[in-house]
Amino acid sequence: MQHTAPALPANPLIDHPLETTFPPNQQGRLLFWFAVVFSAFQVLTAAHLIDLPSQIIRAVHVGFLLLLIFPLVAHARRVSGTWIRVAWLLAAAGVAVACYQTLEYTALLTRAGDPLPRDIGIGVISLALIFLATWLSMGPALPLIAGLFLSYCLFGEYLPAPLNHRGYDFAQVIDHMAYGTEGIYGIPIFVSSSYIFLFILFGAFLEKAGMIKLFTDVSLGLVGHLQGGPAKVAVFSSALMGTISGSGVANVVTTGQFTIPLMKKFGYRSAFAGGVEATASMGGQLMPPVMGAVAFIMAETLGVEYYEIVKAAIIPAILYYLAAFWIVHLEAGRHGLQGVAKSELPSAWQAIRSQWFLTLPLIGLIILLFSGYTPLFAGTVGLALTVMLILGGSIALSLPAGVIRIIFWIGLGLTAAAFFEWGIKVVAVTILLLIAWNAWTKGGRKTLGICLDSLAEGAKTALPVGIACAIVGIVIGTMTLTGAANTFGQFIVSVGDQSLFLSLLLTMLTCLILGMGIPTIPNYIITASIAGPALLELGVPLIVSHMFVFYFGILADLTPPVALACFAAAPIAKANGLSISIEAIKVAAAGFVVPFMAVYSPALMLQEGHVISVAYIVLKAVLAIGLWGFAVIGYWRTRLNWAERLWALLAAFFLVAALPITDEIGLVLTALFTIWLWFKQGKSTVKI
Q: Is 639 helix (H, G, I), strand (E, B) or coil?
């Protein structure tokens, strides 16, 4: 059994101990099995094969997070034996808190608002463990932000008006944060313990099944031979990876291991190659159906159906990748970079023909989500289909080719379909039978090992997301206890009375500043809770305001000085992280204007208007992206001078501005620019 997972390249600026392998010793094997049990618990509760109150599931979820994080971080940092023992003591304390929440569940409900001294003591321990686990696994930024909010609860009454509040005693604050559903066990951890974990596990199983190779082969076959093909492969494969993986950094270190060296081999600068991969990988969080797990939090927060979030995200996601594709095409033309010879590339059609069945769980997931089923239901079905596919595939290889295999697959398909008639128990029994069958053969036992690895790897991948959701609950708890969001919201509204654009700019800067040290999910939760209501009051549609915040939370991982995704790409590209960040901003430049366009024209997110208005705003966006590319790269079959680049930038600005007659000015400038290029370069056509 292989107890390993892909590790991030070593880089002191992005030390992610949770991305390393399980330790190759007895403690590592123990942690591996704890991770397997964690995943099994989450699957069984999601499928309602184990029915527990939501509060207990949340407490156990946090308990498992703490149990795994402390020892894994200690082993990853190769600390001494004493500190290893301290790590296990902290892990045991995390388990003890979960046990207390579980055993005292009913009693805690009856004395809600009037905690006992021991409740306060356990609450303080749980908060301390959450802060420490987050600091060790993700760095100081997020704990410091959460600590500021917690301090505001305790000492905010001493601040001058309008920043002050009425005051809350220590016991009330601890009770609010450590118990109930407003603090660390609030909506973020609820979503982490249900939707997010399930979809991370779904992606882990698909990756083990060979989905990454399928995506890479299809991308190579479709665009690898075009001008600047290697960079286009990076964009295309990362877009496909985004459908099953919501982690930008994970995308960088998986697809980037292949695409960045390929881009460099064919002449792209190291920094540009890293910037392309970082930009394309971060866009995976925009790509339905998984969307970096923020989609599930957003749907839960807004109280809307999941497909409404996907509907709002689909056009911006396509535009994001279109912009990146266009930039790399222009960069390739500017430097005369060609594609890979077709003879050296796999056939996209052959890859699909031989591995099309891997897409069935993903297709099933998308159909269920758009049919109105809950993400929890759809994710459970998608995961079950993936497991059946992996286990069934191993068995099918041991059967005689031809009719018998076909009968086996038909029977397995009918069993999967029986889920809709008789529920999850039919599928559970089928999976148990498949496990028993696989256990009898050597190849089957290897497949079972792969499934165990997927369970463990999924749990490990979920650790930083889960602990971030736990600590960001403190921020949300502060908002609900003190009403702090109103102060900042009123400031944004007052600015918006003078200029909506300035309010949007302020919100964007808040997202980018927060993003310097925290991942997209807590960035979105914090900023949306503060700025979302204010933007709504200024007339921005609810989903659009939250998507605006989400979008810039993603772009924060590309902007200096932290630029997490860029520093993840740095060791692979062998380039400085900051120089990669500058190139990434160039590649994603057009993406910075899409959220602003959506605010002024909500049809871009399918929130209003009919087909014609949607088509018009999309056309404007595409034109603006094209012009932005000319301005940033300074090339279109020949180098553009600064006057021409400024002309393109000005035309793009007027197309985005959404003020009276700006569309007309923008279209005229675009037409004149096109005519100018046509006369300058002749009537020759360009191969894309």
A: strand
Q: Is the pLDDT of residue 152 over 70?
A: yes
The single-letter DSSP state of residue 284 is G
Report long-range pairs for 533-536 (Cβ below 8 Å, ≥24 apart). 533/485, 533/489, 534/488, 534/489, 534/490, 534/491, 534/492, 534/493, 534/496, 534/503, 535/492, 535/496, 535/503, 535/504, 535/507, 535/599
Residue in this structure with the two tokens 């997070």, named with its chain if needed: 65
Q: Which two tokens stand for residue 408?
A: 């086996």
- Token reading at 616: 């018009």
pLDDT attached to residue 675: 85
List the structure tokens of 190.
């609820």
Count Cβ atoms below 10 Å from residue 610 Cβ, excluding itself.
8
pLDDT of residue 115: 85
- The reported pLDDT for the residue numbered 8 is 34
Element of type H or E holding 495: helix 484-498
Residues with Cβ < 8 Å from 515, sequence gap 6 or more?
523, 552, 553, 555, 556, 557, 559, 562
Name the most confidently modeled range: 160-169, 272-281, 287-296.
Answer: 272-281
Contacts of 143 (CB under 8 A, 6+ apart): 131, 134, 135, 471
Q: How many CB atoms lie under 10 A from the CB of residue 144?
A: 13
d(CA 559, CA 554) in angstroms, rounded, equals: 10
What's the rounded mean pLDDT across residues 546-552?
84
Say whether 200 sits in a helix, a strand or coil. helix
pLDDT tens string 344-396: 777 878 888 877 777 788 787 777 777 767 777 777 888 888 888 888 888 88
pLDDT confidence band for 242 (50 / 70 / 90): low
Provide the pLDDT for residue 41. Answer: 92
Residue 635, beta-bridge partner list: 639
Nearest to residue 454, comparing CAs of 381, 397, 392, 387?
Answer: 387
Task: For 22-45, give one letter per residue: b (16+ CB within 10 A) or e.
Answer: bbeeebbeebbebbbebbebbbeb
Q: Which DSSP category does 183 fall into?
A: S
In this prediction, residue 16 carries a pLDDT of 52
pLDDT in tens, 251-283: 676 677 777 887 887 777 888 888 888 888 887
Residues 371, 196: Cα–Cα separation, whole Å: 20
The span from the CA of 60 to the CA of 530, in Å, is 29
Residue 522 near residue 488 (C-beta atoms within 8 A) = no
- The tokens describing 113, both together, are 């608002």
Measured distance CA(264)–CA(573) in Å, rounded: 8
Residue 653 has pLDDT above 90, yes or no: no
pLDDT (mean) for 17-39: 82
Closest CA to 119 of 52, 181, 176: 176
Q: Which residue has the higher pLDDT, 564 or 602?
A: 602
Rounded Cα–Cα distance for residues 543 and 308 (Å): 9
Burial class (CB in 10 A: 0-12, 13-18, 19+), 568: buried
Non-local CB neighbours of 569 within 8 Å, separated by 6+ positions: 252, 256, 260, 274, 275, 277, 278, 577, 580
Beta carbons within 8 Å of 460's beta carbon, 6+ residues apart: 5, 18, 22, 35, 68, 72
Q: Mean per-residue pLDDT for 139-161?
A: 84
Q: Would you say 466 and 138 are in contact if contact means Cβ atoms under 8 Å apart?
A: no
Residue in this structure with the two tokens 């569940």, named with its chain if needed: 105
Per-residue pLDDT at 19: 56
Q: Which of 183, 198, 92, 41 is nearest to 481 (CA)?
A: 183
The DSSP 8-state label assigned to residue 242 in this structure reads T
Structure token digits, residue 135: 């600091």
8 Å CB contact between 260 and 275: no
Take residue 37 and report the two structure tokens written for it.
């049990």
